[in-house]
Design goal:
Blueprint: E1 2-5, E2 11-15, E3 21-27, E4 30-36, H1 38-55, H2 63-68, H3 77-92, H4 102-108, H5 119-130, H6 142-153, E5 159-163, E6 166-179, E7 182-201, E8 205-209, E9 212-215, E10 231-236, H7 239-252, H8 254-263, E11 267-273, E12 276-279
Antiparallel strand pairs: 1-8, 2-6, 3-4, 4-5, 5-6, 6-7, 7-10, 8-9, 10-11, 11-12
Amino acid sequence: MSFRAFLLIALVPVTAPAVEVSRARYLMGTVCEIGAPEDQIDAAFAEAARIERLISTWRGDSELSRLNRGEMSAPSAELRSLLDRVTTWRDRTGGAFEPRIRPLVDAWKTRSEGSVPSREVIVAALAHIRSGDAPFEEGGFGKGYAIDRMLATIRAPHVVINFGGQIAVRGESLVSIADPQHRDRAIVDVTLRNASLSTSSGAEKSFVIGGRRFTHIIDPRSGDALPPRGSVSVIAGDALTADVLSTALYVMGPEEGLRWANANDVAALFIISPHQIVRSKNFPRE
């Protein structure tokens, strides 16, 4: 068995109007970089740290972790509103996005070295999730929500935030989407205008057992960890939506995902291979 973890660098700003400074910090298990006027960056990082304390399931003291353990009778108004929003996306995507996926994450051990659980364990995890009492997992929406909250603290007309590979732009900036198998090789350029771009890829984290490679992305409908199959990028007006939908469309796969994106007017790009790139009808063409 082997395990590989990647910092996905599929999104890299390549041109942008001048900003005063760009600074980075390690937050929510990844690097967050903000390009904005210097006097506004500290407040944005402070807001990201607050969101980490609110929803990070990597921290035992976060509000979401304490809620998952049953240590709170009710969540705060902010957390309740957020969980209601992401639960709505579960319904809208037909279960391809599932905020209560933690039992399957634990079954597959995707937070550590990876493991293939028995079918009985998967069935039990699915039953726990469908009961409505399973713990929430912030992966798939946490970074997006943090980006939206950071943007809300910055007044400047032009801002670029790169949070672990998810980009959000106020104003306009050209970014590149990389070949998921060669993260240093840009293969699609796109101009973001007051929008966020999120990419989900099996290259970010994978493990091999019995000669089969699995990714950290799990299909909450079947309970199976998915194989590497390129990447999916989604552009949306807010970062939370982009974060959620890049995960959901990766779970759906290129055919189902493209149909869903077109039916729901979602701007999505599927990189199946460097020579097979499929855009939804709303994804911009440079």
